[in-house]
């Protein structure tokens, strides 16, 4: 199954995303996703675009969270 993750080029500062940290198991059902606003975009990696959130958490983007 292929997951359609956004690329670094599709992201921008201030957008709200769902990320997983490098030490989290992406396939684990128990892992709580981290949701926050993008502060810095580092670039694309096989696990997804690596970003730092405004909260300081660094991880790989799994999806963009739509405005509610």
Automatic annotation (TrEMBL):
InterPro entries: DUF2196. This is DUF2196 domain-containing protein.
